[in-house]
Design a protein that fits this description.
Layout: E1 2-11, E2 42-49, E3 58-64, E4 67-74, E5 78-82, E6 85-88, E7 91-97
Antiparallel strand pairs: 1-2, 1-7, 2-3, 3-4, 5-6, 6-7
Length: about 100
């Protein structure tokens, strides 16, 4: 397994679900409406399922937006994989391998 950082760069051209507002979005809280994570969103952790067209990226998340927040990150279906990035039904992400924090 690789330790990676995934950063949402922008919404997809025609997302299934619009990105939520980072000011009103409370991570971990279910919304009354169907929304994607905000654009200013970064997670780090152990990559369980890497980007592959038709699959989902799965990450055992240890850090969210710079704070320790263990959990699981699941993307929507991957539509395209590029060098250091991947596109999903809702979003465009950058992915990079990084050194894990000392306490992870």
């Amino acid at each position: 397994m690789r330790y990676v950082r995934i950063k949402k760069l922008r919404a997809a051209e025609r997302p299934m679900a619009p990105s939520s507002d980072s000011w009103t979005c409370q991570s971990g809280q279910f919304l009354d409406r169907f929304e994607s994570i905000p654009v200013d969103y970064t997670v780090e952790g152990w990559l369980i399922s890497p980007p592959a067209v038709g699959g989902r990226v799965v990450l055992f998340r240890l850090v969210r937006n710079g704070l320790r927040r263990p959990g699981v990150f699941w993307s929507t279906s991957v539509t395209m994989v590029g060098r250091g990035c991947f596109h999903t039904l809702n979003s465009v992400y950058r992915i990079e391998e990084v050194a894990p924090f000392a306490n992870n």
